[in-house]
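## Example pair
The file below holds two records. Each record gives the amino-acid sequence first, followed by its structure token line.
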Amino acid sequence: MVPHYESLTQLIIWNTIAFVKFQTMSQISDTLKGIIEIRDGGVQVLAPSLIVGPLIDRLTHTAVFHEKSEMRATARWIIKMIAPQLGINLSSISSFYQAMGRGEVSGFTVPAVNIRGMAYDSARALFRAANRNNVGAFILEIAKSEMGYTHQSPAEYAAVMTAAAIAERFSGPLFIQGDHFQVNLKKFKEDPEKELDGLRQLIKEAIVAGFFNIDIDSSTLVDLDRASLVEQQRDNFEVGVSLTQTVRDLEPKGITISVGGEIGEVGGKNSTVEEAEVYIQNYLAALGKNKTCMSKISVQTGTSHGGIPMPDGSVAQIKLDFNVLEAISKVAREKYGLAGAVQHGASTLPAELFDRFPKTGTAEIHLATEFQNMLYGQIPVDFKEKIYAYLHEACKDEMKAGQTDEQFLYKTRKKALGPFKSDFWMLSDETRQVIGNKLEEKFSSLFNKLKVNGTREIIRQYVAPVPVSFSLSEEVAAAEAEGKKVPPRKAEDNPLAD
């Protein structure tokens, strides 16, 4: 969308920045003159209409792909600092979920969307759908595992999601969530404190970046071989409490971070009401009365992450137990004041099932793989063949006996999103537009089925904007740490304004 120009000077600036590459700090500074002012450690927006378009595109590309950590960090810091002045506030959904727990709001299921590939374009499609349908009740999230194989740190992810909101002129609370901050069972058994310290560091990194919603997943520690339900869930609720306390100690002033708990590992045994009550009761007792508890509880209902691929590459139909969702959601709300149960691994379910989630009182639903499938369904054949050749070599040890090539590629292709991140971002304008349009229609359909259309005003009613100032030095530290985790970035030009 071409912005309204307030003067001939602004029009000249706009046309100039369309051809400037952010290679140096001075280029950023020169480009921002008259549009954004940086002074005394703060950022002031001078010409809001000139931010949407090539400027935000180039800031985003710099934030992701510049080979120098200081450049990436500065671009991210600018993006997050200007967002509140444009009506976008990184927020916690906790107060809204508390209202759900009190029964003040109901009748819909909040979608939490994992953005893995083509993050900027994909998120922009989601914000277009949100604007089109007046949706405020939705979450953008990324799991601990996804951060690794997509090469998206919390600092990068938060900046890109915020930039996408700016680019599409979204306004209101923006909920960014850490999904499945999961305890590794094997590593926990070897050295519990080392494993938990790693998660505490990730929680800190995420909160500093602007993740004000965090799902703690210690369900991997549930031991069904123990005699009683309490003992089966003990490690789960004790670790859950410990990590919740970490969150509370780190959350910014004025923000109560939404924390999620989990009682059944996705892909495992279906959860029961009894397990949910044992977990919640013991979690609350161990947490104590002076700490804010979790706001929702994730359960297992028969799904698996990514779906189950068949020999021909199609996804198997599953039997999802809606009774589990309904029963646990009811107990969680009426007895403990939580928003309800959370459904994971649902994006590959048949479309006709989605309108059942609001009817069962499901609080939140996590969606990821179908959007990834849509990307792979639209990219050029030669690019896809290049990716598949890479996977056959890089992931050959993951090929299981009896597995077809289609099944192998379906299960492993998510691991190409990081190594080929630049290639995805630099697809042609035509391909990106097709993908963006299809994603927008998909998001709009999901919003409609989950009954969150028209929720923007009610979200604003319960979620007040809280001023949060981000630290440039912390952004720099986060960007410097990335170089130790992923290969060096490529310094290509920004393709988004070509």
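Second record, same layout:
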Amino acid sequence: MALYDYACAGCGPFELRRPMAQAGDPAGCPGCGGPATRQYGAPAVSRIAAPLRAAMEADRRSAHEPARVTRTAGSGAPHHHPHGPSRPWMLGH
């Protein structure tokens, strides 16, 4: 079952949990019992995890013009390891 938005002409908007097969059907208003129609709006992005929401926002911002890269991956200070390359059996070194 999913959560849908409906609106009653007299009482205003409300949410109703019902099966997907009944999503488009008129619903009864919980306040007055009158008919209510389904309302369509933007997805509830506030319920999305913060990292995914940040990625979606970055994607939206760069839709028309990609972000400018000022540094390539791997640039910066070289990694120095005093003991040479690690071996698979040397975990944590």
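Notes on the second record: Residues 1-61 form one domain. The longest helix spans residues 50-61.
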